[in-house]
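[Q] Does anyone have a clean structure-token version of this?
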Amino acid sequence: MAKVIGLGGVFFKCRDVEATRAWYKRALGVAIDEYGGTSFGHADSAALFPQGARTIWAPFKGESDYFKPSDSDFMINLMIDDFDGMLDHLKAEGVALEGEPMIESYGKFAWVMDPDGRKVELWQPVESNPAT
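[A] Here you go.
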């Protein structure tokens, strides 16, 4: 049977496309391409985290508070390569964290709100079983 093998993209509407692109570039270092978005190569994340890099697909109950304070019905999770460096960069850019950073067995997490009120989860995977 044919099956889904991965997440091919995240597409969303925003109030001011240029302002949103500029914020993601400035605050998170997203390289905006000629088409106005970016393409994250799976090979790039797998090279840094051979066992830890993955895309999570997870429905949440409608009453979940996990996306708060956003009113959006989805949250974007972006994989990062340097947790402490990203937190320093966000602070230097004046971007406030939403809640306290968290360290779990499967990674380090921090949250920010984008210009359109969407919660963005920043995740540095933990390489629990390093490839040899």
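[Q] Thanks! Anything notable?
[A] The first strand starts at residue 76 and ends at 79.
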